[in-house]
Amino acid sequence: MTAAIPVPPDLAGHPFFQYRNNVLYAEDVPLDHLAGQLGTPLYVYSRAALRAAWNTYHSAVGQRPVLVCYGMKANSNLAVLKEFARLGAGFDIVSGGELKRALAVGADPARIVFSGVGKQAWEMRAALDAGVMCFNVESEAELQRLSDVAQETGRRARVALRVNPDVDAQTHPYISTGLKENKFGIPIGAALDAYRSSRLLPGLEVTGLDCHIGSQLTDISPYFDALEKLLDLVADLEGIGIRLSHLDLGGGLGIRYSDETPPSPKALLDGVFQRLQARGQGHLRLVLEPGRSLVGNAGLLLTTVQYLKHGEARNFAIVDAAMNDLLRPALYDAWHGLRPLLPRAGDALDYDVVGPVCESADWLARQRALVIEQGDVLALESAGAYGMTMAGNYNTRPRAAEVMVDGDHYHVVRQRETLDDLLRGESTLP
Ligand SMILES: *Cc1c(COP(=O)(O)O)cnc(C)c1O
Questions:
Q1: How many A from CA of 413 to the centre of ligand 1?
Q2: Which candidate, 181, 191, 97, places its Cα nearest to that of 137?
């Protein structure tokens, strides 16, 4: 009987989630146990996986002047943030809410960069009060507002201009940000003028140059294309007497979802520093803002099969997680690995794995060969990034719980939302 159970292949990119005796584990915790204790849908993170991902950056940096700011919109659970803060990370924030989270875990404001295309005055004020390292500014109008707010608070805001270098990151159009048709950044051709005007604004101190060309990049050359354009601009800026102290290349390194082989942080950093030296810009401090590559493969989403539905054209596995829990398939047509916690013997059928939400876009995986029965628990892989942070309450569905595994222990790091939580704050007319 046991001999007939197919042994699933090793999860190459996922050393912290492995089968032992045909049970899927997170580190030393059997996941069927977790699902039984805490219910599903359930996000499960591995602390060791977070640390390992951090270490790939940390060891690649070595003695070079690099500040790694975790792009926390990928996963902003306080336990995840605290772990990175302990490891010495800075943070890349995109809202006043993310600032609040960073400060809540004791992040050093001198290592926080504030990105985002639509900063409001209250968010600027809060970040100035906290003393963040830098604002990445995306338009002339934002420069003006930031200068005004800084003056009101009696401070000067350190700024980098986010330029749009017009390079093709060759990633999904929804996560490509460095092309001239994107809303992000100041067109590189207009950057020199923007720097000139920022110099005239009394509330600002210009310190850097920033770009972020996209996400899930699996090819390294777009980074270097962008860098060369940025370094041309740095030289032009020196020509008009503006000397910068840092260069921020954003985030975007991809991860392995299926068979991608994304570039390593070391390959990126080696290539960047080689080019900085070659252009006489070795004095620039480098900032990186990785999100996905620090957390993506440190998380799973567990979900239970509610019904199997065998149609004429398709077989459906209807599960208790949905697009409100994991939006990436619906939004980006994204592919996530899918594995049963307790693999069964038998003949596989091709299934579309879908949620209960009333939308045809509510699918999690398509055409997967599975041997499953009602009640089985499945793990969606690579769900640590842009999973829970994109979750919502569509169909009045409470958001999932989150748990962090640490060796043979686990900690619930976010309680499952209750129905009362969902109704709180609403009222009817008298
Ligand atoms: C989203 C984002 C990041 C992180 O991107 P990843 O692809 O997750 O590494 C970094 N910087 C900015 C400005 C972002 O918008």
A1: 23
A2: 191
169: which 2 tokens? 């990151």
Closest CA to 30 of 416, 415, 405, 295: 405
Which pair of structure tokens corresponds to residue 391?
């979750």
CA of 101 to the centre of ligand 1 (A): 17
Give the mutation target among 135, 212, 288 for probing the ligand 1 site: most ligand atoms within 8 A of CB.
212
Q: How far apart are CA 326 and CA 407, in angstroms?
A: 26
Q: Which residues pair with 217 in a beta bridge?
A: 253
Annotation says 358 is catalytic: yes
Helix (H) or strand (E) holding 128: helix 121-130
Going by C-alpha positions, the residue among 202, 196, 99, 104 that lies closest to residue 155 is 202
Measured N-to-C along each axis, helices 221-239 and 191-200 cross at an angle, to the nearest 10 degrees, of 50
Tokens representing 427? Answer: 């009222």
Q: Are 335 and 257 in contact (CB under 8 A)?
A: yes
pLDDT tens per residue, range 225-257: 999 999 999 999 999 999 999 999 999 999 999
- What average pLDDT does the structure give for the chain? 95
